[in-house]
Design brief:
Elements: H1 3-8, H2 55-68, E1 72-76, H3 79-86, E2 95-99, H4 104-114, E3 120-124, H5 129-136, E4 142-146, H6 158-167, E5 171-175, H7 180-183, E6 193-197, E7 211-215, H8 218-231, H9 237-247, H10 250-269, E8 274-278, H11 288-293, E9 301-306, H12 309-318, E10 323-324, E11 334-336, H13 348-354, E12 360-364, H14 370-381
Parallel strand pairs: 2-3, 2-4, 4-5, 5-6, 10-11
Antiparallel strand pairs: 1-7, 6-7, 8-9, 9-12, 11-12
Helix pairs in contact: 2-9, 5-6, 12-14
């Protein structure tokens, strides 16, 4: 089945008696087992208590699993809830290698929670395969990466990282939020687990919080689902329904996001007050060819730096159509200030090394007319 068709006509395990075109919303927290054999195997309808599973949540899990090509997908209340559950796979003393450039909230989790819990966290530039191999040689339970990264848009070789991780006896975990399975499928390249903030492109409308873990193998699926049930961090029925609705238009939205982002990136490159533009779709981006070799597109996220801190703040104060707001992946174009928003809790010296300063701006390019987006950025960039 084609990807676009699967987004709409995914497998339905629940047959609605009313034969509704749109999936029903099941709000029940408990399920009647009258007439069934009492015992551990009594759940002939597949449902017992909604913390473990709900028909509406199972629907969105089925479609995300199918799109990523996984063994199982588990839906969580947020992307951070998904990563937090994932790290319960590990034990005190375990060594986890992570990408040097990650979303600030993920770094905060590692610094303030994972290390407190006794995990040894070591960061490495995952675009440097020799450096990754050297770090993994000292032992690791997992390698956690984003590609492209947030916010510097660096691209890592997933297949090569999978080989290095597996040779070292480690899992490869890939955050695929930026590109989604429409443009990139890490499991097919050797990753063991895929992470999503479903709040972003999967939901696609800036109206729902969600997260996903997609596992490649049954043993991981069973471990993760047990952890989700124990922690109680599964996605609610209504939010599951919203993400299912959003996914139906994922291919259309991702194409438009990408089309607009490329046009905006090329326009920004021509502006004298813009020092750099980071977008893998630009031919001179160092990850351009790699991004195409391991996927089919570049997505709708870009980052650029202006000549002064004052100009960056002027842009944020003067945009009108573009919204100065955190998050990404919705219909609206959003501009974010990583230094004081997404990465506010990261050590200033670390930010300096990564080039995340007060001149950097990140843009989630939306679905509006690209001419209108550019016109708004043009007036905001003006002195």
């Amino acid at each position: 089945m084609d990807f676009a068709t699967a987004c709409i006509h995914h497998q339905r395990r629940i047959q609605d008696p009313a034969r509704a075109v749109v999936e029903p919303l099941y709000l029940s927290t408990a399920y009647d087992h009258a007439g069934e054999t009492v015992g551990r195997d009594h759940m002939t309808n597949g449902y017992d208590y909604a913390r473990l599973q709900n028909p509406t949540r199972q629907t969105v899990e089925d479609v995300v699993c199918a799109l990523e090509g996984g063994d199982d997908a588990i839906a969580f209340s947020t992307g951070m809830a998904a990563i937090s559950c994932l790290f319960e796979l590990f034990a005190p003393g375990d060594r986890i290698v992570v990408g040097w450039d990650l979303y600030g909230g993920t770094i905060r989790l590692f610094d303030q929670v994972s290390k407190k819990n006794g995990y040894e966290i070591e960061a490495v530039d995952t675009t440097d395969l020799a450096a990754v191999e050297s770090v993994l040689a000292r032992g690791a339970r997992a390698l956690f990466v984003e590609t492209p990264t947030n916010p510097t848009m660096a691209v890592s070789d997933i297949a090569a990282l999978a080989t290095l991780a597996h040779d070292a006896g480690a899992l490869l975990i890939v955050d695929n939020t930026f590109l989604t399975p429409y443009f990139q499928k890490p499991l097919s390249l050797g990753a063991d687990i895929v992470v999503h903030s479903g709040t972003k492109y999967l939901g696609g409308h800036n109206d729902v919080l969600a997260g996903f873990l997609v596992s490649a193998r049954p043993v991981l699926s069973e471990q993760l689902r047990t952890l989700m049930n124990t922690l109680g961090s599964g996605l609610s029925a209504f939010d599951s329904w919203l993400v299912t609705r959003g996914i139906k238009t994922l291919p259309l939205r991702m194409e438009r996001h990408q089309q607009n982002a490329l046009a905006v990136a090329r326009w920004l490159e021509e502006q004298p007050c813009v020092d750099y533009v980071l977008y893998p779709g630009l031919e001179d981006h160092p990850g351009h060819d790699l991004c195409l070799s391991q996927g089919t597109g570049f997505g709708g996220m870009l980052t650029f730096g202006v000549d002064t801190e004052e100009r960056a703040q002027h842009v944020l104060e003067c945009v009108k159509l573009v919204l100065f707001a955190e998050s990404l992946g919705g219909p609206e174009t959003l501009i974010t200030y990583p230094r004081v928003q997404t990465h506010a809790d990261v050590d200033p010296e670390e930010l300096k090394q990564k080039g995340i300063d007060y001149r950097m701006l990140r843009v989630s390019v939306g679905l509006e007319s690209v001419d209108d987006i550019i016109a708004d950025l043009e007036q905001a960039l003006a002195d």
